[in-house]
TrEMBL record, chain A:
Family matches, as InterPro entries: Spore_III_AC/AD, Spore_III_AD
UniProt keywords, alphabetically: Membrane, Transmembrane, Transmembrane helix
The name this protein goes by in its record: Stage III sporulation protein AD
Transmembrane portions of the chain: 27-51, 63-82, 102-124
Positions in coiled-coil regions: none
Keyword match DNA repair: no
Protein origin, superkingdom: Bacteria
Organism this protein belongs to: Desulfotomaculum copahuensis
Automatic annotation (TrEMBL), chain B:
Name this polypeptide is given: Stage III sporulation protein AC
TM stretches of this protein: 6-25, 32-57
Keyword Metal-binding attached: no
InterPro entries: Spore_III_AC (IPR009570), Spore_III_AC/AD (IPR025664)
Keyword Membrane: yes
Keywords: Membrane, Transmembrane, Transmembrane helix
Length: 128, 67
């Protein structure tokens, strides 16, 4: 049961962070960053397995691989940006976190533009 | 599971050590040394965390095929 290990890791890190937050808040923030990274790294491999299955399915459905790649990039950007924004918000810098989310939204929009263009192109084909 | 839980205890150890050093140096009147001790501890922990963050970003990049 991997979830037990991860919950235990999180609880231990939370207790230690509360202990240290009183006189060294910057180290408590770095501790929470390290804990978050460890929990994320532990489950990232499983996401990779799911993504492989998705890729195989899309190949079987003879989808264009460009679309799945764009989708995966968007999901990755969202994960990383959410991670950074939450850490900034935890450290009391909500404004920087909001800017990170803003940047992520723009990057996702840039990635999504080719797909929107393709949709519009196929719509134009349908119109006589 | 490919992670090093010892890093958390190392960070906490540095934190407690730096806190005690800060307290002792401050109570003996050496405020500037107290600041240097705090900055040193913060630098060490920051180097560890940034290295971990680098491996994390590499993993995410390879899983999601980001550039």
């Amino acid at each position: 049961m991997e979830i037990m290990q991860l919950v235990g890791l999180g609880l231990v890190a939370a207790v230690l962070a509360v202990t240290i937050r009183h006189n060294k808040p910057e180290l408590a923030m770095l501790l929470s960053v390290a804990t978050g990274i460890m929990i994320f790294l532990a489950v990232l491999g499983k996401i990779g397995a799911v993504i492989d299955v998705l890729k195989e399915l899309s190949e079987r459905a003879s989808l264009n691989m460009v679309y799945l790649g764009t989708l995966l990039k968007i999901v990755g950007i969202a994960y990383i940006a959410d991670f950074g924004a939450q850490i900034c918000r935890d450290a009391g810098e909500g404004a920087i976190g909001a800017k990170i989310e803003f940047a992520a939204k723009i990057l996702v929009l840039v990635l999504a533009v080719p797909i929107v263009a393709a949709v519009l192109q196929s719509l134009l084909k349908l119109v006589p | 599971m490919g992670y090093d839980v010892n890093l958390i205890f190392k960070i906490i150890g540095i934190g407690i050590l730096v806190g005690v050093a800060h307290y002792v140096l401050k109570s003996s009147g050496k405020e500037d040394y107290a600041l240097i001790a705090t900055l040193g501890g913060l630098g060490i922990v920051l180097i560890w965390v940034v290295q971990l963050l680098g491996t994390f970003f590499d993993q995410v990049r390879s899983v999601f095929k980001l550039f």
